[in-house]
Amino acid sequence: SLAMDSSTGSRGPAGFATQANALFRKNLCFQKRNLKTNACITVYPILVCVLLVLMQRPIDNRIDPSKYSCGCACVDTAADGSCRRTECGAQHSTPDQVAYCQILSPPRWPALIQVPRPQSRAVRTASQPSNGLPEPTCRVTRSCPAAFLVTGSNRSLTESLSGELFPALSSPLNFTDYLDTLSNIVSGSDTVTLRRQLLEPTFISEDTLYVVQPRRQSNLSQNVSVNAGMIPLRLNVDCIQGLSLWRKSASVINDELFKGYRQRGSGGGKTNEFVAGYDFLNTSKDSLDINIWFNSTYNRKVAYSPIAILRVPRLVNMASNAYIKFLKGSGAKMLLEYVKDMPKVGSKLKVQINSILSTLLFTWIVELIFPVMLTYLVYEKQQKLKIMMKMHGLKDGPYWMINYAYFFGLSAVYMILFVIFGSLIGLRLFTKNDYSIQFVFYLIHINVQIVLAFFASSFFSSVKIATVVGYIYVFGSGLLGGFLLHFFIEDTSFPKGSIVVMQMIPGFSLYRGLYEFSAFSGNENGTGGMKWANLSDPVNGMRTILIIMVIEWAILLPLAFYFDNVSLLDGRLRKRMLVFFKCFRMRAVSFKRYSFGRLGSNVLVEMENPDATLEREVVDHLLLEPNSNYATICDNLKKVYHGMDGNPDKLAVRGLSLAIPKGQCFGILGPNGAGKTSFISMMTGLIPPTSGTAYVHGMDIRTDMDAIYTNMGVCPQHDLLWETLTGKEHLLFYGRLKNLKGVELLKAIDYSLKSVNLFHGGIGDKQVRKYSGGMKRRLSVAISLIGDPKVVFMDEPSTGLDPASRNKLWSVVKEAKKNRAIILTTHSMEEAEIVCDRLGIFVNGGFRCIANPKELKARYGGTYIFTMTTSLEHEQEVAQLVHRLSPSAKRIYHISGTQKFELAKQEVKIANVFHEVESAKCRFNIHAWGLTDTTLEDVFIKVAKGA
Predict the structure, then answer these.
(1) Which PANTHER family does the protein's record reference (predicted)?
(2) What percent of the chain is modeled with pLDDT above 70?
(3) What is the pLDDT of residue 199?
(4) CB burial of residue 625 (10 Å; 0-12, 13-18, 19+)
(5) If you average pLDDT over residues 36-53, what whole number do you get?
(6) How far apart are CA 756 and CA 753, in angstroms?
(7) How many other CB atoms are there within 10 angstroms of residue 75's CB atom?
(8) Between vectors from CA 509 to CA 508 and to CA 512, what angle results, nearest 5°?
(9) Which residues face 449 on adjacent strands?
């Protein structure tokens, strides 16, 4: 029932399991009502998979399979023109098709150098007036030399070696054995090697083959046909001059190479005006010491091609050959006959959307559950539902466990569906990698993401802001991972320690893990996926990521729990920062409570207010000699709101002292802004006091709020309810928090619903969103009284109620106060007079008077109000009549013949008033008159105005 007998006190506070069970049942009901939302969240990965399949089909239809596969040709034609045998291979392929051919025995190709195109070779310009460079006119005639920059500590030796870089020929080349012929000279190409696998594109695409000579010789230019095994070749051979230019230092070479690096015209891409740079350093007759600059522009990955070929071997051979000639004479040679790649399998171009987006897409999908969890937690805080549960005794442990379990289950279902349906549609990220590794990775990440949501929720009090920031985090971490972390991982020169630090951010650690899965799943010809044995591979970062995520979880979990309890954004009384001081505080609490009791040195003594002074004396006595009969003691409680934007500080509660015994309902009256709600908020733990304290059954609101909540009931000024739960479900939840069980719980709920008129007609089984404002108010009152709380705070409980419901509510409160102390704020004078045993009129942050309603009326209302309405010419006679009745009478109202007077009760007899009025009626016309006693409202107005 609402008014439990004293025997129920042995029931004790609810334990961990009881509170967890209460919250679990409440959340289960809440989530059942939000089933559609939960279903939409969990099926989102399925929707993504379906969209990928639907988008893949038109892409597959747009791809011409003959263009993006190895070329084929008929090699045996019948008499009727039909093809009896078709053969596929590089010899039947276009340059674009060659990349997709199976080549079991790659051909041998001469090693070439990368030569700039004729229109891009280095010339003398205003920005680069370097010595030895030709005039820009050579670009028009396409006769610019191929420039090499050289330097070294020994200039004469360096110039001697650079003179031997280009072996000279006097006769046209013999291409019968083209590999041997080209190994004796320096040959090069301006063809881009990108998108060519295993084959030298210069020979496949019939581009120009440049022969680099000390001077240009027109007689070496020719067109030749070569048979490279089964592949016929046609070459356009052109002779160009190789120009070696001395520079005094490596920094000068580096500067010129940088200036010569530019866009390659309207076609896009980049090139370098110089072929290469040589620094012979400390080369001597005893040792060859050399650095080589070369153009690595095309050493990059694209979605459909591996790393391009770098034409570097011939540059090394040129320096080696020149050094051998320097040592042994012009007859000595160090030949580089050919280069050869590894065999390759055939392939076909298959553009997959999931492969193009790959890691970035999957990162977004996995992280999208994070804003859902964040907004759920912030919603409960914004609506003050979390603190409402806290004020009814819910501990942090059950709250965390139940919500953690819910988030874990939601995230697990989300990821399981994603993996299952991703595997069904053939996403290689799932199908190629070991499912046990995926299970461990996603399991750890789910836990990290949950504690990150708890941690982040401590810094938000608005759902809208939390939602925006949550999605910014999701998309921002994905984009930064794709366009920043991705390149750092692939850049072998980037410090690995810096990458590890970056991966401490949960979004980056997720991206790195998915990146490793994607790398091992590979493309169509990729690897077999990640296995447990691969974790020992130093290139594989998965083991590091798993360790990092475990560390993230271990760090974020205590931080989230700490900020959940001490963050200033939570809007309630904070716990102490150092938990290990708790025992010390508990040992010292009796000293603080009952020895001195004063927390601030600024004690307000109001000699003109005897009620406040008397109440302070009672509090001082109780602090020195505790009395268990007093439920609540306020000791010099003060609250100051610090001003902002230049505004002064606002003193909301001024050193308030108050003692309330059990069995008493104490009413607080006051105008708007007087500080009533601030006082209630401090007592219920919503805001901390600036100074002073209060004790509820001997427990300090500064340190023991958790214990106080188990014995407290609260009816807040605004209804804090779950819109989708029924009234009965609310009472079941809060009743279980107060350790009501079984039949006792059901009886208490039925009695509560009947007491506030929500039982009949099935009203208690309707969702709260269907309640009127008055019905919600009655439910809030029932919640505050269920479970036998020892102290109940009611902030304007009858607001919005009809007269019948209000009278019923008053009866409930009067019955409930027999076993507990009730502190009630109200603007209804009738409510205060009927329900409250004592009243305090609260003005400007302090009590102006404290007494029972009758005493207040007697003290501040020792007058009658006499009203009379006559014509204007008889107003003076009315005033004379009143002064005959009461010489000290005072006129308080006068307009158009209507006058009101205050008559001192000790000067007036009611019989004399009637006699004088009857006599006056004989002398002049009286339109209306009346005599009333002082009401509580008159007292309130008088005290408030006086203050």
Answers:
(1) ATP-BINDING CASSETTE TRANSPORTER SUBFAMILY A ABCA, OS08G0398300 PROTEIN
(2) 88
(3) 65
(4) exposed
(5) 84
(6) 5
(7) 11
(8) 85
(9) none
- Cα–Cα nearest to 214, from 148, 140, 153: 148
352: Cβ–Cβ under 8 A, 6 or more apart, which residues?
56
* C-alpha to C-alpha distance for 804 and 485, rounded to whole angstroms: 68
Q: How far apart are CA 834 and CA 829, in angstroms?
A: 9
b/e map 548-578, b = 16+ CB within 10 Å: bbeebbeebbeebbebbbebeebbbbebeee
**pLDDT at residue 223 is higher than 60:** yes
One-letter identity of residue 648: P
Q: Residue 21: which residues within 8 A CB-CB, separation 6 or more?
A: 736
3-state secondary structure of 870: strand
What is the per-residue burial (b if ≥16 Cβ within 10 Å, else e) of 737-762? bbbbeeeebeebbebbbbbbbbbeee
Q: How far is CA 785 from the centre of its chain?
A: 38
User: Among 514, 349, 363, 489, which residue's Cα sits nearest to residue 430?
Assistant: 514
DSSP letter at 118 equals G
The partner residues of 238 in beta bridges, in order of sequence, read 210
Q: Is the pLDDT of residue 444 over 70?
A: yes
Which residues are CB-contacts of 753 (< 8 A; sequence separation ≥ 6)?
A: 727, 728, 731, 759, 763, 764, 782
Closest by CA to 724, choosing from 21, 27, 22, is 27
pTM for the model: 0.69
First-to-last CA distance in the chain? 42
- Dump pLDDT digits (tens) for 570-592: 444 344 444 434 444 444 443 33
How far apart are alpha carbons 6 and 664 in whole angstroms?
Answer: 16
Place of tokens 């209460």: 22
Cα distance between residue 382 and residue 400, in whole Å: 17
Q: List pLDDT tens digits, range 676-710.
A: 888 888 888 878 899 999 999 889 988 888 888 88
For residue range 234-254, what is the model confidence (pLDDT) as tens digits? 778 889 999 999 999 999 999
Residue pair 679/686 in contact by the 8 Å Cβ criterion: no
Helix (H, G, I), strand (E, B) or coil at 847: strand
Q: What is the mean pLDDT of residues 918-930?
A: 89
* Phi, psi at 136, each rounded to 5°: -65, -15
Contacts of residue 745, defined as CB under 8 A and 6 or more positions apart, other chains included, come to: 732, 735, 736
Q: State the greatest distance between any 2 C-alpha atoms of the chain, in Å, as a whole number.
A: 155
Q: Which of 716, 790, 13, 791 is nearest to 398 (CA)?
A: 13
pLDDT, tens only, 63-84: 777 777 888 888 888 888 888 8
Q: What is the β-pairing status of strands 791-795 and 712-715?
A: parallel
What local confidence, expressed as pLDDT, does residue 577 receive?
42
